[in-house]
Amino acid sequence: MTTSHAAEEASTSESHYVDHENPIIGLHNCKLIQQGAEARVWEGVYLGKPAVLKQRFSKRYRHPSLDARLTQTRLKQEVRSMLRARKLGVLTPCVLCVEHEASTIYFERVEGVSVKQALSSGALQPAAQLELLRAIGSAIAALHDGGVIHGDLTTSNLLVRAADNALVVIDFGLSSNSSIAEDKAVDLYVLERAFTSAHASCGPLFEDVLASYRQHSRLWCPTLNKFAEVRMRGRKRAMVG
């Protein structure tokens, strides 16, 4: 299908999301669900399947050629990190399509709730909660041992799939490749801060995550040693202000 023909189809259907910079996005019955600093996220139907679309948008303050290069680099890194995570045994949404010209990725839509919602609801039984926390530690250990740094580990970017309660990791938009213990430690520290800010009333949940990480990671020793240093630096910063 040519671009002009696709654009004509889009103009005849109100169910398409039309972006003025990228005139055709093949998502039907779409709804904006998130507006971030780097991208907009929509959900709808793509090729007859429930889908999520993530479109990175240009930054006007950057030179156009630099902006285009950075956007494409981050787009490719996000897709590669997701595919690599799946090879490492970590569940992520399936990538359905990548449109480089539109800076857009189509994913399968995972039905379920975020870990943030699951923990905040208070509906989890102690055994189920512990199993979930252990699954988080195991998934992060697999990513780190495989050289994948998520970059934005929060309980909002971890999903509990409705079909089988499996843990699914989402939003690799800030991901990178690294085997450096410091990078892994910062990843863990970001998640600890998320637990501290969002789930302080639930007790020391992150300790169960760390225990599982230590159990499942082959390289846990240098990472957790560095994590202790990163944690200390963070506390000093908080005290100084």
TrEMBL record:
<dbReference type="InterPro" id="IPR008266">
    <property type="entry name" value="Tyr_kinase_AS"/>
</dbReference>
<keyword id="KW-0418">Kinase</keyword>
<keyword id="KW-0723">Serine/threonine-protein kinase</keyword>
<keyword id="KW-0378">Hydrolase</keyword>
<keyword id="KW-0067">ATP-binding</keyword>
<comment type="similarity">
    <text>Belongs to the protein kinase superfamily. BUD32 family.</text>
</comment>
<dbReference type="InterPro" id="IPR000719">
    <property type="entry name" value="Prot_kinase_dom"/>
</dbReference>
<feature type="domain" description="Protein kinase">
    <location>
        <begin position="27"/>
        <end position="241"/>
    </location>
</feature>
<dbReference type="GO" id="GO:0005524">
    <property type="term" value="F:ATP binding"/>
</dbReference>
<dbReference type="GO" id="GO:0005829">
    <property type="term" value="C:cytosol"/>
</dbReference>
<keyword id="KW-0539">Nucleus</keyword>
<dbReference type="GO" id="GO:0004674">
    <property type="term" value="F:protein serine/threonine kinase activity"/>
</dbReference>
<dbReference type="Pfam" id="PF00069">
    <property type="entry name" value="Pkinase"/>
</dbReference>
<keyword id="KW-0597">Phosphoprotein</keyword>
<dbReference type="InterPro" id="IPR022495">
    <property type="entry name" value="Bud32"/>
</dbReference>
<keyword id="KW-0819">tRNA processing</keyword>
<dbReference type="GO" id="GO:0008033">
    <property type="term" value="P:tRNA processing"/>
</dbReference>
<dbReference type="GO" id="GO:0016787">
    <property type="term" value="F:hydrolase activity"/>
</dbReference>
<protein>
    <recommendedName>
        <fullName>non-specific serine/threonine protein kinase</fullName>
        <ecNumber>2.7.11.1</ecNumber>
    </recommendedName>
</protein>
<dbReference type="GO" id="GO:0070525">
    <property type="term" value="P:tRNA threonylcarbamoyladenosine metabolic process"/>
</dbReference>
<keyword id="KW-0808">Transferase</keyword>
<keyword id="KW-0547">Nucleotide-binding</keyword>
<dbReference type="InterPro" id="IPR011009">
    <property type="entry name" value="Kinase-like_dom_sf"/>
</dbReference>
<dbReference type="GO" id="GO:0005634">
    <property type="term" value="C:nucleus"/>
</dbReference>
<dbReference type="GO" id="GO:0000408">
    <property type="term" value="C:EKC/KEOPS complex"/>
</dbReference>
